[in-house]
Amino acid sequence: MPLIKERVTRVFGRNHIFAGIHVFTPSVDIPDEYGTGPRLVVLPLIGTFIRNQDSMAIRHAREILTKRGEQPRQKQNRLIFLAADNDVVARLYDQARTWLAWKSIVDDIDNEKLNLDLFQAKQARTHKDAAEQSIQQLVRETYKWLICPVEEFICGKPTLRWEAVSVSPSTPNLILEIENKLREEEWLIFEWSPVHLKNLLHTWYFKEDNHAVKVSKVWQDCCHYLYLPRLVNDQVFKNAINRGLETEDFFGSASGQDGERYLGFVFGRHSSIVLDEFSLLIEREAASRYKEHTVTPSAPEGGREKTDSDFSDRTNREHTRDGKAQRRSNPETSISAIKKHFYATVLLDPIRAKFDFAQIVDEVVEQFTAKLGVEVKITVEIQAQAKQGFDESLQRTVSENCNVLKFGAAEFEGGID
């Protein structure tokens, strides 16, 4: 019934952590993507839930979980379901019919098809408003079952099971209540500890001679498989990595690999991970061994790892000594201006932009952010040209993504041939 679908959609609002809320949506129209958050699927009224039974809600949810139309669904761990209570559905239908009846009477009065006195007309409108309020309350009472698919290994084989919990119909904000329930039940992870990430890596990825795994693979697997943690978004994943890299207790990372050499190796210091096809997570013991092998034995700081910044510091010291010598030989240049502003531009290869930008952040930007009192601003400029012009689908997708990412200015322009 379109009326009930519209009333159900209305109770969720716009401010939530979900990448989408799909009310009575066919499986083929529910995206199968990583997204900016999980997806809440509101099952139709034919899929009602009955506790301790293989209800229609579970069957309907299982169909959506495993398939997108006729194709198998890949990102199963991005879906959470909301189902109607079987005992309340009939009342909701009856109340919807009552509202439609009173609405029809009021419409006839307004269109002068029905001749009633003022008292009768007022009564009709009062009954219509009361029916409207009852529908909204019954929608809350009906859609109270939050259902989550989870997978556990029994005798070495993954076994799917469904967990359900009810949300209170009396709370003023339904979507906030759903988010709180997901947090309480740990069906959705809002903050993730590096300890749990380390355990996950050792359980599923670091085995035998495999001491490194792509960061993107771990994140994608968490979106695919129901036995892995269901994270709110990739930022939760990146935050756990960044916190873990600050010490040598969990794992190391690299922005790429060239043979036996790790590019942009990080272990035991602050960094900002990039989710691309090159970045790696490295087993703690392997990272420790690699760090020991890359230490310069004659380092004056007692065996500190030799980095590109050491070369920069040495160059600066030599430059400073040369400058002092020059000032001694030329007294007129003994007082130099204090440098208070820095700017730089660099052209990035669009294919390797993620990798190159990560290196820029590590090697340049962090030199400033590590100092107190230094304000850093980064502006990203993107230019793209196509002789044949951009199709409407690309324009719409890029414009929507730029809006979500809060671009200050982003627009397509026409050109003169």
Radius of gyration of CA atoms, rounded to a whole number: 30 Å
Question: Quick one: how many beta strands?
Answer: 13
What's the SSE pattern? Answer: HEEEHEEEHHEEHHEHHEEEEHHHH
Multimeric state of these chains?
single chain
| Count, helices | 12
The average pLDDT is: 85
Beta-strand percentage range:
5-15%
Percent range of helical residues: 40-55%
Question: How would you characterize the overall build of this protein?
Answer:
By secondary structure, the chain is α/β, with parallel strands linked by helices. It has helices at residues 2-10, 56-66, 89-110, 118-142, 174-184, 194-204, 215-224, 234-245, 284-293, 308-329, 353-369, 392-404, and strands spanning 20-23, 39-42, 48-49, 67-68, 71-72, 79-85, 143-154, 157-166, 212-214, 251-254, 256-258, 261-263, 280-283. A hairpin with a 2-residue loop joins strand 7 and strand 8. Helix 3 (89-110) runs antiparallel to helix 4 (118-142). The longest helix has 25 residues, at 118-142. The model is unreliable at 298-335 (pLDDT under 50).
Short description:
By secondary structure, this protein is of the alpha/beta class.
Task: Please tag this protein with its features.
single chain; 12 helices; three-stranded antiparallel beta sheet; about 425 residues; alpha/beta; six-stranded mixed beta sheet
